[in-house]
Please model this.
Amino acid sequence: MGFDQYHEPPEELSTEIRTRARMFASLTEEAEAIGWYDQRMSLEPDAEARAIMEDAQTEEFKHFSMDLEFLLRRMPVWREIAKGVLFQEGDITELGNAAEEAADEDGGGDSAADESTSSSLGITGLKGAGL
Amino acid sequence: MNHLMRGHAPITDEAWRQIDAEAKERLVPALGGRRLIDFDGPHGWQHSATNLGRTDKEAKAPTKGVYLTTRRVLPLAELKTPFSISRAELADLDRGAVDTDFAALDAAARQTAVAENVAIFHGIESSSIDGIAALSSHDPIPLGKNDFDKYPEHIAKAIEMLLTSGIEGPYGVALSPDSYTGVVETNEGGYPLLQHMRKILDDGPLVWAPGLKGAVVASLRGGDFLFESGQDLSVGYESHDADKVNLYIEESFSFRVATPEAAVALTI
Model:
């Protein structure tokens, strides 16, 4: 089994960064699966087979959304920008630029103090972890 | 900037990084309660109440022919633990000192973790939080004073009680610091007691929980113990003078026990 999600030596990465790397890999896989089902369904003539693919694709929508929300909770600046773009009306590019500018005004990702200004310590749930 | 007002503190980026890292390092091992419960959120500082899906009894409405019921919610509790750091220490940290005195921060982190654990296991009446041990529907199992070699027997009994009530595993155990130390230091004919307990738990978590009195055996199957986080643990800025910076550790949350049968309290 390969560990392609790592671009740096895994042993040098923190547990948190390794977890994020796995979630990034999952996010990519879910997006790919959504796209594959999209293509298959567009060509599949059998209605029953298409219905199954549609059901499977709906599952991938859920998985992708959960992966994304996990990452957004762990990366406050990304979350700030996403808030300005996702589920908004209007031109997507303009929304993106405005959200980026707003995040920059707040300090963006360059300032650890400002990044953490809008964030917690990121401890969240610890269920199942012993000591 | 948000209500934590970190941008107003005379603290450099590097110092904030180290303060946050130190706080996290001290909090995580002590947050024993979080290792047994379902964590939901964080939903943000403005999140004020948990929906209970219930209403109060019907009351008289201001208009005839109209029925009035009021929704019941569980308000979020806020925990805030102040501490101070010397500005001279922060200046040395920025010069590259690696032995910064974070004693006050460490103490605040421990106090905060203890308060959270107390809320989870024993409850906070003024915040309408019922703890896991306090609300358990099972008779508590007496642990006896320093009878650590009997702990595996007590835990096995607690698991049997849970199974009898139809509560499935996996199971976890939270121990008070005294009980944890006693367990770690005890051997059964050369075999560590801790390992024996882990075997009974089928490698479920054995948790150190300062603030807990005695021990708790709980199911980890999910849906039984619900922690709803508004703002998760954060470090905020209060004020400063020429000598020190006044900060605080803060969080907001609600906690409720959905299934009182899903845990057994073991009491000293």
